[in-house]
Automatic annotation (TrEMBL):
GO molecular function: DNA binding
SMART domains per record: HTH_LACI
Pfam families listed in its UniProt record: LacI, Peripla_BP_3
Source superkingdom: Bacteria
Keywords linked to the UniProt accession: DNA-binding, Transcription, Transcription regulation
Residue span(s) of domain HTH lacI-type: 6-60
Name by which UniProt lists this protein: LacI family DNA-binding transcriptional regulator
Annotated HTH cro/C1-type domain residues: 2-36
Keyword Membrane included in the entry's annotation: no
CDD domains hit by this protein: HTH_LacI, PBP1_LacI_sugar_binding-like
Length: 338
């Protein structure tokens, strides 16, 4: 019978340390102390451990291929992020391959399981809404293929991450509504469990608290990111006895859905109920009235994410970095009361 090859997981089990620590020790990275590294190297030599180059993807930058895993490619935000990634990748001699999850955790898992990482030097990942793929991401990193997260990140994984400033963007959005005279502000939020959903929710709440306005829990609605979800959320709010006079939406698509609901019910946007979104999707300036929003730096997020990934690929000693980029308030007619 053919003897099974020793793997990184075997070394980790014997030494009672994590797989990622063994992987970093074998690559002599900055964050593993010399004593641990020596134990790993000695055991690897003793057991005749041989790196699995098919698994590690020749992670020294030999393929010049990068993978991008993301929920969608059809909306403005992600297409703009991809444009930023492309500019850096192509100028640095890398090709890119897109893997689209359709915001499905099961599809995300299937993609990660089927990835031929021997053909990739690194991955840029925006996790699905209900992702619990931490173990898969960690296994890929342990096999020597670096990952950088953007937009929707996995907090528990120690690698570089690039995000917009969700908390302060939300805070600024709600303060703008308050400055315009709105005092009963609802929030149509994204799915629970996502880091940026929670940060935007926290920014919304803190702005209310700062301005001595109550937090009304029934005015906080969690649902998907689509225009249809925004319309349904607004329909529900309009059926309540205690109606809000303004809406902060987690993104522009939900805000536009809410505007469609208000038009359907003959409610004047701005005068009767103000609306503010988050993204600065091109539709926000085309729809009537124009949608006030927080513009996200999508292009810059794409560029910076790719720059960090290439540093992880090409530098032996590179500390993981977390970058948070500010948004910008764009004022249009949807928050004008007169």
């Amino acid at each position: 019978m053919k003897r099974r090859n020793i793997t990184i997981k075997d070394l980790a089990r014997i030494l009672n340390i994590s797989v990622s620590t063994v992987s970093r020790a074998l690559r002599d990275t900055y964050d593993v102390n010399q004593e641990t590294r020596q134990k790993v190297v000695n055991l690897a030599n003793e057991l005749n451990y041989k790196p699995n180059f098919n698994a590690t993807g020749l992670a020294k930058g030999s393929t010049h291929n990068l993978g991008i895993v993301l929920p969608f490619i059809t909306n403005y935000y992600f297409s703009t992020v991809i444009t930023g990634i492309q500019e850096v990748a192509y100028n640095s001699g890398y090709n890119i391959t897109l893997y689209v999850t359709n915001d499905s955790h099961q599809r995300e898992l299937q993609i990660l399981e089927d990835l031929t990482i021997s053909n990739l030097d690194g991955l840029l990942i925006c996790a699905s809404s209900d992702s619990n793929s931490s173990e898969y991401f960690e296994n890929i990193i342990s096999d020597g293929v670096p990952i950088v997260f953007f937009d929707r990140v996995i907090d528990t994984i120690d690698t570089s991450k690039v995000m917009q400033d969700d908390y302060n963007g939300a805070f600024e959005a709600v303060e703008h509504l308050i400055e315009r005279g709105y005092t009963k502000i609802a929030h149509i939020a994204g799915p629970k469990g996502l880091t940026f959903t929670e940060k935007r929710l926290n920014g919304y709440k803190e702005a209310l608290i700062k301005n001595n306005l109550p937090i009304t829990e029934e005015w906080i609605i969690h649902s998907e990111f689509s225009q249809e979800s925004g319309e349904k959320d607004m329909d529900w709010l309009l059926q309540q006895n205690n109606m809000p006079d303004a809406i902060f939406a987690v993104n522009d698509r939900k805000a536009i859905g809410a505007m469609q609901s208000l038009k359907k019910h003959k409610i004047i946007i701005g005068k009767d109920i103000g609306i503010i979104g988050f993204t600065n999707d091109p539709m926000s300036s085309i729809i009537t009235p124009g949608l006030t929003t927080i513009a996200e730096p999508a292009y810059e997020i794409g560029k910076l994410s790719c720059e960090l990934l290439i540093k992880h690929i090409t530098k032996t000693y590179f500390h993981a970095e977390e970058k948070i980029l500010p948004g910008k308030l764009i004022i249009r007619e949807s928050t004008i009361r007169s």
